[in-house]
Structure formats: structure tokens, C-alpha cells
Amino acid sequence: MNPSVNNLKVGIVGATGAVGQELIRLLHERKFPLQELVLLASARSVGKKVSWEGKTWIIDEAKPEAFDDLDLAIFSASGSISSKLAPEAVNRGCIVVDNSSAFRMDPKVPLVVPEINAHVLRNEKPGIVANPNCSTAVALMGLFPLHQAFGLKRFFVSTYQAVSGTGAAAIRELEAQTRALMAGEDYAPEVYPYQIAFNLLPHVDSFLDDGYTREEMKMLNEGRKILEHPSLEVSCTCVRVPVLRAHSMSINAEFDSPVSVSIAREAIEGFSGSELKDDPSNLVYPMPIDYSEKVSCGIGRIRKDTALNNGLALWVVGDQLWKGAALNAVQISEVLLEYGHL
Ligand code: A2P
After folding, report:
1. Which residues pair with 247 in a beta bridge?
2. Could you give the residue range(s) of every CATH 3.30.360.10 domain in the chain?
3. Using one digit for the tens of pLDDT, what is the confidence trace for 211-255?
4. pLDDT confidence bin for 166, thresholds 50/70/90
5. Helix, strand, or coil (residue 100)
6. How is residue 107 annotated by DSSP?
7. Contact at 8 Å (CB) between 316 and 248?
8. Most buried of 68, 84, 178, 323 (most Cβ within 10 A)?
């Protein structure tokens, strides 16, 4: 980070949401050089107060003029809001880091996990930079070091996704539904189509005609773009589980070269942003409660796959509100500073 820069005006769109709240915290904790932080949300929230560590902000409405004086805006509201407002912000000279899926597959928009492909931001000042889908970002934190070691050919993945990935209302639903059911009361689902407490839903995002969901196809399409690997093959099943925070995934990956578990472990250990948590004899493996509010993703259960050629099986866990959203967005912003675009 450039220490001489300390006058940035930064906006958060979706500041009242689950990711927005983490953005406020991480921008401060990571000492992003803020001169002013502007918190934006829907018209419903205008005038609402948001506080963090003794500081208080008043929410403003996210509308085009709100970006007039901003250097950087981090969007975490929805695809339709990003589609409408991100170009308005860029036209006003603001760089946008967008958490939605609106621009991720646009060939002109960089899609970035800094530990993997920060280089795509090096030369040109971007307008919009896209932040990947949360499960994709976490999965790649385990797969990228193995790709470097052995050459990734294809992978099969099942996700175990926390409710906070759906947003603040889903966290409230899981907590309230759990309490109600424990008290022997009914609690009708509102956010999810079915009960999520003491259950799971093999369904994240909307279904496509071929039976996959949009979320599942993000793993393939965004994975190819971030890894710059157009022939990568991926088959994904996304599952919503009654976990509050941090996504987990079971991955079976096939590589071009023969694999070795010890080299795989070394590759993970040498990769910044991931940590090896893999000692089955002592019951050491990553779990969502250990990786909530944690910068690193945890990688464990690494073993030779019994069904694939040159295959490895592994278990990856990461805080999707952080590495899958707010942290990755702040890390992108730090790269923009480092490369002199801010
Ligand atoms: P609001 O609280 O005003 O509805 P989550 O993903 O946790 O549900 O959060 C969604 C975020 O997106 C919230 O901050 C929400 O603000 C914001 N949002 C929803 N609709 C709009 C809108 N039309 N314009 C700007 N922000 C919006």
C-alpha cells in the first residue's frame, strides 16, 4: 500500500447488508487510507445510523449523484443495482469494485482474486473490477496452488454454503427458526423455500434449463476466467446448510501431471491466503466455526483420489463474507492503490 495516500473518499453501496457491515470493519481494521467513508443503501434506509468502534455514519441513498466526489465505490447490494449504478459511478470518475455477478463475465471487466491474478490490474486503470462469486473464490484458494504444482484439468465440487451468503435476512431466519423449533413452535420460512434449521437445501440460486443452478455455473465460468484456463472442466453441486458463516467444499480434482500428497501440502503451505490444516490422526481439519472472520482459507483432508487419474480429494473452508466478498473487495482496493490507480 502506498503510505503517502491518505485522502481517499470511499463509498459502500449496500452498507446496511451483511457484506456491507464487514466492509466497514475491514476497511478500518486493514487501515485503508480513508479520508471519508460514505455509506449508501436503499431509500428505505436513508437517515439510519450505522456505528463501528465509536464512529457513526448516517446512511444516504445510493443514487448517481452520490458518486460525484468519490474515488472508490464498493458495491454489495444486488446485480440489478450494480448494473444501474456502477456505470454512473464510473462516469463520475470513480473506480467500482463490484461484488455482484453483473459484470463478472464481461470480457472488458477484470475478475480478480488478488493472490491469483492481481497482475490483470497492473497496467490499465480499470473502471469496474469484479469480485468473484463467494464459493468460487474460496474453492480457488485451495485449487490454485495445486494447479501451479500439477496443472488442473477438471474438478468435481459439492459446496456446503452458510446462510450469511444469502444476506442479513437469512441469518435472522436461521436463528429465529432454530429457536422456534427448539421451543416446539412453528416458524414459516420466508427467505428460503423450505425450513433451513436442522435441514439443508440442495439449491443455491435459480435453476437453469439443464438442471444446474446459476451458482453452480459460476464455479465453471468464473473459474476459467480467473485461472485463465478456458478448457477447465467443472461439475458443481451447491448446497445451503444451516451454518451461519463460512462456506465449506468437498473437491475432487484431476491434474495433468502425477500428483503427490506431500507436494500438494507444500504447495498449499507456500501459498499466501491459504493455510494447511491437515492432520487427520489428530482430528485436525478445517471447519466453518474456525474460519469465520479469518483472512486465510483452510485446506485439509488432502488425499489421493481413488477414482480419478492424477487426482486429489480435498476439503476447503473460507469465510465467504470475507474472502468470498468483503475481504477480497478490500484486497482488490489495496492492489489498486499499490498499482497507483487510486
Ligand atoms: P437496505 O437495508 O436499505 O435494503 P443483504 O445482502 O444483507 O440482504 O444486504 C443487501 C444490501 O443491499 C442492503 O444494504 C440493502 O439496503 C441494499 N439495497 C437493497 N436495495 C437497494 C437499492 N435499491 N439501492 C441501494 N441499495 C439497496
Report:
1. 318
2. 135-320
3. 999 999 999 999 999 999 999 999 999 999 999 999 999 999 999
4. very high
5. coil
6. T
7. yes
8. 323
Specify whether 247 is catalytic: yes
User: How far apart (Å, rounded) are the C-alpha atoms in residues 110 and 226?
Assistant: 9
What is the best residue among 23, 78, 163, 244 to mutate for testing ligand 1's pocket, by most ligand atoms within 8 Å of CB?
Answer: 78
Q: Residue 4 pLDDT > 80, yes or no?
A: no
Length of the chain: 342
Q: Which amino acid is at 174?
A: L
Of 238, 247, 297, 341, catalytic: 247
Helix (H, G, I), strand (E, B) or coil at 312: strand
CATH for 135-320 is 3.30.360.10
Q: pLDDT tens across 73-97, in order? A: 999 999 999 999 999 999 999 999 9
247-255/152-161 β-pairing: antiparallel
Report the run of H or E that residue 316 belongs to, with start and end.
strand 311-318
Domain with CATH 3.40.50.720 in the chain: 8-132+325-338
Check: CATH 3.40.50.720 for 8-132+325-338? yes
Ligand 1: residue of 13, 42, 96, 166 to mutate (most ligand atoms within 8 A of CB) is: 42
Are the CB atoms for 70 and 9 separated by under 8 Å? yes
pTM: 0.96
**Which residue has its alpha carbon closest to ligand 1 atom 24?**
42
**What's the distance, Cα to Cα, between the start and end of the chain in Å?**
11
| pLDDT at residue 5 tops 80 | no
Q: Is 130 helix (H, G, I), strand (E, B) or coil?
A: strand
Q: Any residues with Cβ below 6 Å from ligand 1, and which?
A: 13-18, 20, 41-42, 44-45, 62, 77, 81, 167-169
Count of other CB atoms within 10 angstroms of residue 188: 8
